[in-house]
Amino acid sequence: MNKQELPGLIDAASAYGTGGGTPTGGAYEKYIAKPETAAWSTLAGKGRKVIPTVSAGWDNRPRANGTCDWCGNFSNPAYVIDPTMQELEDHTVEGLKWVQDNIKGGSGAAETNTMLLSAWNEHDEGHWIEPALEKYGGAEKLKAISRAIGRAEARAAAISEQ
Length: 162
Description:
By secondary structure, the chain is mainly alpha-helical. The chain contains 3 helices and 2 strands.
């Protein structure tokens, strides 16, 4: 997890999620999508098995109020602006495509045929996909992910027909 190098102890590299950003809010593509995509291929290039992670955002500013006992002293106000639903859909498609391309026929790095989507309900870290009240987006993140899965299924079907 989190790109640790533990030969013989872990079967595949992955990450909990991708943070970062700026104090005024960094762009999702720059601070999450591109670094995650690059990490998958970098790890695979080192001969590692990979379970790619697609993060749905990053904003742990809610922890700044001091109510998070396990967080220690909060001092990093950097966050990533929530992705547009098109950005989330596209990045999810990238992750699913990477898995499809790197199972056995590709590099073999994705032999588990698995991708992680971070995370269901990490509201105080800003990377949730759990449905919210309509005024906060409702189920739009799940709908974007569903569209991404549909696109990946269509791609897989087209490849298998060739």
